[in-house]
Amino acid sequence: MTIALALHGGAGTLRRSDMDSELERAYRAGLERALEAGYAILRAGGSALDAVCASVCALEDDPLFNAGRGSVYNLDGKQEMEAAVMDGSRQDAGSVTGLSRVRNPVLLARAVMEATPHVTLGYAAAEDFAARIGAAMQAPEYFHTDKRWQALLLEKERLANGGADDDIPEDRKHGTVGAAALDAQGRLAAATSTGGRTAKWPGRIGDTPVIGAGTWADAHCAVSGTGHGEYFVRAAAGHEISARVRYLDETLETACDAVVHGQLMRMGGTGGVAAVDRLGRVALPFNCEGMYRASIDGEGRKRVAIYRDELQR
Ligand code: ASP
Protein backbone atom coordinates (compact mmCIF):
# COMPACT_ATOMS: atom_id res chain seq x y z
CA MET A 1 0.00 0.00 0.00
CA THR A 2 1.73 3.11 -1.21
CA ILE A 3 0.62 6.54 -0.06
CA ALA A 4 2.14 9.89 -0.94
CA LEU A 5 1.45 13.58 -0.49
CA ALA A 6 3.03 16.70 -1.99
CA LEU A 7 1.98 20.25 -1.26
CA HIS A 8 2.98 23.82 -1.94
CA GLY A 9 2.34 27.10 -0.21
CA GLY A 10 3.07 29.17 -3.28
CA ALA A 11 5.93 29.81 -5.67
CA GLY A 12 6.48 33.33 -4.47
CA THR A 13 8.80 33.13 -1.54
CA LEU A 14 10.23 36.06 0.33
CA ARG A 15 13.73 36.96 -0.77
CA ARG A 16 16.23 35.32 1.52
CA SER A 17 17.39 38.75 2.59
CA ASP A 18 13.84 39.61 3.74
CA MET A 19 13.34 36.36 5.64
CA ASP A 20 14.30 36.26 9.30
CA SER A 21 14.71 33.05 11.22
CA GLU A 22 11.49 33.42 13.19
CA LEU A 23 9.43 33.96 10.07
CA GLU A 24 11.14 31.08 8.32
CA ARG A 25 10.29 28.84 11.27
CA ALA A 26 6.66 29.96 11.03
CA TYR A 27 6.50 29.12 7.32
CA ARG A 28 8.07 25.72 7.86
CA ALA A 29 5.74 25.01 10.78
CA GLY A 30 2.74 25.93 8.59
CA LEU A 31 3.93 23.54 5.88
CA GLU A 32 4.51 20.78 8.46
CA ARG A 33 1.02 21.23 9.90
CA ALA A 34 -0.56 21.02 6.47
CA LEU A 35 1.52 17.96 5.59
CA GLU A 36 0.55 16.20 8.78
CA ALA A 37 -3.14 17.11 8.36
CA GLY A 38 -3.26 15.38 4.99
CA TYR A 39 -0.85 12.55 5.68
CA ALA A 40 -2.67 11.46 8.87
CA ILE A 41 -5.73 10.81 6.69
CA LEU A 42 -3.76 8.79 4.15
CA ARG A 43 -2.01 6.82 6.90
CA ALA A 44 -5.39 5.90 8.39
CA GLY A 45 -6.57 4.57 5.04
CA GLY A 46 -8.57 7.68 4.12
CA SER A 47 -9.07 9.02 0.63
CA ALA A 48 -6.69 11.15 -1.40
CA LEU A 49 -9.54 13.63 -1.80
CA ASP A 50 -9.99 14.01 1.96
CA ALA A 51 -6.22 14.32 2.38
CA VAL A 52 -5.72 17.12 -0.14
CA CYS A 53 -8.72 19.00 1.26
CA ALA A 54 -7.34 18.72 4.80
CA SER A 55 -3.90 19.96 3.75
CA VAL A 56 -5.33 22.85 1.78
CA CYS A 57 -7.71 23.83 4.62
CA ALA A 58 -4.73 24.00 6.99
CA LEU A 59 -2.95 26.35 4.57
CA GLU A 60 -6.11 28.42 3.95
CA ASP A 61 -6.44 28.93 7.71
CA ASP A 62 -2.82 30.06 8.02
CA PRO A 63 -2.55 33.81 7.33
CA LEU A 64 1.02 33.45 6.06
CA PHE A 65 -0.16 31.90 2.80
CA ASN A 66 -2.12 33.50 -0.04
CA ALA A 67 -5.38 31.55 0.21
CA GLY A 68 -8.39 31.86 2.50
CA ARG A 69 -7.20 33.92 5.46
CA GLY A 70 -4.31 36.06 4.24
CA SER A 71 -5.45 36.26 0.61
CA VAL A 72 -4.13 39.09 -1.54
CA TYR A 73 -6.18 42.12 -2.63
CA ASN A 74 -7.39 43.03 -6.10
CA LEU A 75 -7.12 46.51 -7.62
CA ASP A 76 -10.30 47.58 -5.83
CA GLY A 77 -8.94 46.51 -2.46
CA LYS A 78 -11.18 43.42 -2.33
CA GLN A 79 -10.35 39.76 -1.93
CA GLU A 80 -11.66 37.41 -4.60
CA MET A 81 -10.67 33.89 -3.65
CA GLU A 82 -10.74 30.85 -5.87
CA ALA A 83 -10.23 27.11 -5.40
CA ALA A 84 -10.56 23.75 -7.11
CA VAL A 85 -10.53 20.03 -6.37
CA MET A 86 -10.23 17.09 -8.68
CA ASP A 87 -10.82 13.46 -7.83
CA GLY A 88 -8.71 11.48 -10.27
CA SER A 89 -10.40 8.15 -9.57
CA ARG A 90 -13.68 9.47 -11.00
CA GLN A 91 -12.23 12.26 -13.11
CA ASP A 92 -14.64 14.53 -11.34
CA ALA A 93 -13.94 18.13 -10.46
CA GLY A 94 -15.35 21.21 -8.79
CA SER A 95 -14.17 24.80 -8.58
CA VAL A 96 -15.17 28.21 -7.30
CA THR A 97 -14.12 31.77 -7.99
CA GLY A 98 -14.85 35.29 -6.78
CA LEU A 99 -15.39 34.40 -3.11
CA SER A 100 -14.99 36.98 -0.39
CA ARG A 101 -16.67 35.44 2.64
CA VAL A 102 -16.24 31.66 2.49
CA ARG A 103 -13.76 30.55 5.11
CA ASN A 104 -12.47 27.50 3.23
CA PRO A 105 -12.92 27.93 -0.53
CA VAL A 106 -11.56 24.43 -1.16
CA LEU A 107 -14.48 22.87 0.72
CA LEU A 108 -16.92 24.86 -1.38
CA ALA A 109 -15.17 23.63 -4.54
CA ARG A 110 -15.66 20.09 -3.26
CA ALA A 111 -19.33 20.78 -2.57
CA VAL A 112 -19.75 22.06 -6.14
CA MET A 113 -18.27 18.77 -7.35
CA GLU A 114 -20.37 16.60 -5.07
CA ALA A 115 -23.67 18.44 -4.76
CA THR A 116 -24.30 20.35 -8.00
CA PRO A 117 -24.62 19.38 -11.66
CA HIS A 118 -21.79 21.83 -12.48
CA VAL A 119 -18.02 22.06 -12.33
CA THR A 120 -17.50 25.76 -11.63
CA LEU A 121 -19.54 28.38 -9.73
CA GLY A 122 -18.55 31.99 -9.24
CA TYR A 123 -19.17 35.21 -7.37
CA ALA A 124 -22.60 35.89 -5.76
CA ALA A 125 -24.04 32.60 -6.98
CA ALA A 126 -21.20 30.67 -5.37
CA GLU A 127 -21.61 32.52 -2.09
CA ASP A 128 -25.37 31.97 -2.17
CA PHE A 129 -24.72 28.27 -2.65
CA ALA A 130 -22.26 28.38 0.27
CA ALA A 131 -24.90 29.97 2.49
CA ARG A 132 -27.51 27.41 1.40
CA ILE A 133 -25.33 24.46 2.35
CA GLY A 134 -24.23 26.07 5.61
CA ALA A 135 -20.57 26.54 4.69
CA ALA A 136 -18.54 28.41 7.30
CA MET A 137 -18.45 32.13 6.45
CA GLN A 138 -16.33 34.95 7.84
CA ALA A 139 -16.41 38.74 7.82
CA PRO A 140 -13.77 40.58 5.73
CA GLU A 141 -11.63 41.30 8.83
CA TYR A 142 -10.97 37.58 9.22
CA PHE A 143 -9.25 37.43 5.82
CA HIS A 144 -7.32 40.69 6.17
CA THR A 145 -3.58 40.89 6.78
CA ASP A 146 -1.54 44.09 6.80
CA LYS A 147 1.16 42.40 4.78
CA ARG A 148 -1.19 41.83 1.83
CA TRP A 149 -2.68 45.31 2.13
CA GLN A 150 0.78 46.88 2.03
CA ALA A 151 1.62 44.71 -0.97
CA LEU A 152 -1.40 46.15 -2.78
CA LEU A 153 -0.36 49.72 -2.00
CA LEU A 154 3.18 49.06 -3.24
CA GLU A 155 1.89 47.35 -6.34
CA LYS A 156 -0.47 50.21 -7.18
CA GLU A 157 2.38 52.67 -6.75
CA ARG A 158 4.59 50.57 -8.99
CA LEU A 159 1.89 50.39 -11.67
CA ALA A 160 1.27 54.14 -11.46
CA ASN A 161 4.99 54.69 -12.09
CA GLY A 162 4.91 52.43 -15.15
CA GLY A 163 7.01 49.68 -13.51
CA ALA A 164 7.74 46.54 -15.49
CA ASP A 165 6.64 43.09 -14.41
CA ASP A 166 10.27 42.09 -13.84
CA ASP A 167 10.62 44.56 -11.00
CA ILE A 168 8.08 42.85 -8.78
CA PRO A 169 9.53 40.84 -5.94
CA GLU A 170 8.38 37.24 -6.18
CA ASP A 171 6.45 37.22 -2.94
CA ARG A 172 4.31 40.02 -4.32
CA LYS A 173 3.84 38.24 -7.64
CA HIS A 174 3.02 34.74 -6.49
CA GLY A 175 1.18 32.78 -3.89
CA THR A 176 -1.33 29.97 -3.79
CA VAL A 177 -1.62 26.76 -1.84
CA GLY A 178 -2.23 23.28 -3.13
CA ALA A 179 -1.77 19.56 -2.62
CA ALA A 180 -1.66 16.33 -4.59
CA ALA A 181 -2.05 12.88 -3.04
CA LEU A 182 -2.13 9.14 -3.66
CA ASP A 183 -4.15 7.02 -1.23
CA ALA A 184 -3.82 3.38 -0.23
CA GLN A 185 -6.49 2.38 -2.74
CA GLY A 186 -4.49 3.87 -5.57
CA ARG A 187 -6.69 6.94 -5.99
CA LEU A 188 -5.16 10.31 -6.88
CA ALA A 189 -6.55 13.75 -6.07
CA ALA A 190 -5.47 17.37 -6.27
CA ALA A 191 -6.69 20.59 -4.64
CA THR A 192 -5.62 24.22 -5.03
CA SER A 193 -6.72 27.46 -3.38
CA THR A 194 -5.65 31.07 -3.88
CA GLY A 195 -6.32 34.74 -3.46
CA GLY A 196 -4.85 35.13 -6.95
CA ARG A 197 -2.47 37.91 -7.87
CA THR A 198 -2.03 41.18 -6.00
CA ALA A 199 -3.74 44.05 -7.82
CA LYS A 200 -5.47 41.73 -10.27
CA TRP A 201 -8.43 43.24 -12.07
CA PRO A 202 -11.74 42.69 -10.31
CA GLY A 203 -13.34 39.65 -11.93
CA ARG A 204 -10.02 38.22 -13.14
CA ILE A 205 -10.04 34.42 -13.05
CA GLY A 206 -6.68 32.69 -12.74
CA ASP A 207 -5.49 29.14 -13.32
CA THR A 208 -6.50 27.71 -9.95
CA PRO A 209 -10.22 27.12 -10.71
CA VAL A 210 -9.55 26.25 -14.35
CA ILE A 211 -9.52 22.46 -14.41
CA GLY A 212 -6.53 21.25 -16.40
CA ALA A 213 -4.54 24.45 -15.79
CA GLY A 214 -3.76 24.92 -12.08
CA THR A 215 -5.50 21.78 -10.91
CA TRP A 216 -5.65 18.31 -12.45
CA ALA A 217 -5.96 14.68 -11.37
CA ASP A 218 -6.65 11.44 -13.25
CA ALA A 219 -5.63 7.80 -12.87
CA HIS A 220 -1.98 8.63 -13.66
CA CYS A 221 -1.07 11.72 -11.71
CA ALA A 222 -2.35 14.64 -9.65
CA VAL A 223 -1.04 18.17 -10.07
CA SER A 224 -1.52 21.49 -8.27
CA GLY A 225 0.12 24.58 -9.72
CA THR A 226 1.28 27.93 -8.45
CA GLY A 227 2.60 30.80 -10.49
CA HIS A 228 1.58 33.32 -13.08
CA GLY A 229 -1.88 31.95 -13.74
CA GLU A 230 -2.38 33.30 -17.24
CA TYR A 231 0.55 31.18 -18.44
CA PHE A 232 -0.67 28.07 -16.63
CA VAL A 233 -4.02 28.48 -18.38
CA ARG A 234 -2.45 29.04 -21.80
CA ALA A 235 -0.22 25.98 -21.33
CA ALA A 236 -3.01 23.84 -19.79
CA ALA A 237 -0.16 23.04 -17.42
CA GLY A 238 -1.73 20.41 -15.16
CA HIS A 239 -3.28 18.48 -17.99
CA GLU A 240 -0.15 18.79 -20.08
CA ILE A 241 1.90 17.10 -17.37
CA SER A 242 -0.55 14.22 -17.24
CA ALA A 243 -0.68 13.97 -21.04
CA ARG A 244 3.12 13.68 -21.20
CA VAL A 245 3.04 10.89 -18.61
CA ARG A 246 0.29 9.04 -20.51
CA TYR A 247 1.24 9.53 -24.12
CA LEU A 248 5.01 9.94 -23.99
CA ASP A 249 5.47 7.51 -21.14
CA GLU A 250 7.59 10.09 -19.33
CA THR A 251 8.25 9.81 -15.63
CA LEU A 252 6.40 12.34 -13.47
CA GLU A 253 9.65 14.18 -12.87
CA THR A 254 10.49 14.47 -16.57
CA ALA A 255 6.96 15.55 -17.48
CA CYS A 256 6.88 18.20 -14.72
CA ASP A 257 10.30 19.50 -15.75
CA ALA A 258 9.27 19.69 -19.41
CA VAL A 259 6.30 21.88 -18.49
CA VAL A 260 7.75 23.96 -15.65
CA HIS A 261 11.31 24.46 -16.92
CA GLY A 262 10.49 24.01 -20.62
CA GLN A 263 7.14 25.18 -21.85
CA LEU A 264 6.26 27.70 -19.14
CA MET A 265 9.75 29.19 -19.14
CA ARG A 266 9.70 29.58 -22.92
CA MET A 267 6.41 31.43 -22.66
CA GLY A 268 7.72 33.61 -19.82
CA GLY A 269 5.60 32.05 -17.08
CA THR A 270 7.12 31.69 -13.63
CA GLY A 271 5.90 29.21 -11.04
CA GLY A 272 5.94 25.58 -10.03
CA VAL A 273 3.84 22.54 -9.24
CA ALA A 274 3.31 19.90 -6.56
CA ALA A 275 2.62 16.56 -8.22
CA VAL A 276 2.20 12.89 -7.29
CA ASP A 277 1.88 9.86 -9.57
CA ARG A 278 0.20 6.50 -9.18
CA LEU A 279 3.46 4.91 -8.02
CA GLY A 280 3.82 7.39 -5.17
CA ARG A 281 6.57 9.44 -6.76
CA VAL A 282 6.48 13.13 -6.04
CA ALA A 283 7.80 16.11 -8.00
CA LEU A 284 8.00 19.71 -6.82
CA PRO A 285 9.79 21.68 -9.54
CA PHE A 286 9.70 25.48 -9.83
CA ASN A 287 11.41 27.98 -12.09
CA CYS A 288 11.74 30.90 -9.66
CA GLU A 289 13.71 31.68 -6.52
CA GLY A 290 11.77 29.45 -4.20
CA MET A 291 8.54 27.61 -3.53
CA TYR A 292 7.14 26.82 -0.11
CA ARG A 293 6.79 23.07 -0.34
CA ALA A 294 6.57 19.80 1.58
CA SER A 295 6.11 16.17 0.70
CA ILE A 296 6.20 12.57 1.84
CA ASP A 297 6.78 10.22 -1.07
CA GLY A 298 5.74 6.60 -1.51
CA GLU A 299 8.85 5.44 0.28
CA GLY A 300 8.07 7.57 3.30
CA ARG A 301 10.76 10.19 2.62
CA LYS A 302 9.71 13.51 4.08
CA ARG A 303 10.87 16.92 2.86
CA VAL A 304 10.04 20.47 3.84
CA ALA A 305 11.79 23.23 1.91
CA ILE A 306 11.56 26.81 0.73
CA TYR A 307 14.53 27.84 -1.40
CA ARG A 308 16.14 26.56 -4.55
CA ASP A 309 19.38 25.46 -2.94
CA GLU A 310 17.56 23.04 -0.67
CA LEU A 311 17.05 19.56 -2.06
CA GLN A 312 14.33 19.93 -4.70
CA ARG A 313 12.74 16.54 -4.76
N1 ASP B 1 -1.61 30.98 -9.76
C1 ASP B 1 -2.18 32.06 -9.01
C2 ASP B 1 -2.92 32.97 -9.92
O1 ASP B 1 -2.43 33.32 -10.97
C3 ASP B 1 -1.20 32.85 -8.22
C4 ASP B 1 0.06 32.16 -7.85
O2 ASP B 1 0.12 30.98 -7.65
O3 ASP B 1 1.07 32.86 -7.72
O4 ASP B 1 -3.99 33.39 -9.56
From TrEMBL:
GO terms for biological process: proteolysis. PANTHER family: L-ASPARAGINASE, N(4)-(BETA-N-ACETYLGLUCOSAMINYL)-L-ASPARAGINASE. This is Isoaspartyl peptidase. GO terms for molecular function: hydrolase activity, acting on carbon-nitrogen (but not peptide) bonds, in linear amides; peptidase activity. It comes from the Bacteria. Keywords: Autocatalytic cleavage, Hydrolase, Protease. Substrate binds at residues 204-207, 226-229. InterPro entries: Ntn_hydrolases_N, Peptidase_T2. The record marks 175-176 as: Cleavage. It comes from Chromobacterium phragmitis. The keyword Protease applies. Pfam families: Asparaginase_2. The active site is at 176 (nucleophile).
